[in-house]
Protein: AAA family ATPase
Amino acid sequence: MEHLDSVPPRRGLVIFLNGTSSSGKSSIAAELLRILDEPYFHMPVDAFHAMRSRAEIPPDRLDTVLHRTWQGYHRAVAGMAAAGNNVVMDHVLSAEWRLTDCLSLFVPQDVVFVGVHCPLEELERRERERGDRPSGLAARQLAQVHARGVYDIECDTGSSTPRACAGRIKDFLPARPTPTAFQRLRAAR
Ligand SMILES: Nc1ncnc2c1ncn2[C@@H]1O[C@H](COP(=O)(O)OP(=O)(O)OP(=O)(O)O)[C@@H](O)[C@H]1O
Structure:
């Protein structure tokens, strides 16, 4: 292996999976990494929370610590893409500022914005089956997460397997229409 001093500049693609907890984002991301031909990094927001030390956070500081974690996560994804790395982002846009922040950071033509949908009954069934998510979390997120309803491509994991969803996203990539969802969302601001 040759150790390079530099590589040609380029921008990476961000496949942005947005859906509630238990909607199937991580499962689709795992399939995408398996089937996509180019190298991709799966960057789930959960991984950033998991990186934090276990030191107890005083209740009055929790909101600030969480906010900084989300802000840092958005910038980490933007940084990876700016260095030419392709990213599968796995996030829950359950507050308006998160979308606003991502719209201000990402190159809008380089984002494939994917709406990951799942019927409420199935979300609740998965939550019960998993047992590692607070009951009712997905239901509380549902309305805000898809509030904009503007996507490049949408999946319904209630009726499609993660593999089928990933296959559709892969097939969508070579002839992505413009303006992209992020370009349309930016223009509407
Ligand atoms: N298309 C699908 N059909 C059936 N079950 C699915 C499907 N996609 C995911 N699941 C199951 O639903 C549960 C949640 O899936 P997954 O972890 O991919 O969701 P997530 O959106 O990443 O959740 P979170 O944001 O809470 O981490 C898992 O038990 C998974 O096996």
Observations:
- Residues 59-82 form the longest helix (24 residues).
- Residues 14-187 form a domain with the Rossmann fold fold (CATH 3.40.50.300).
- The mean pLDDT is 97.
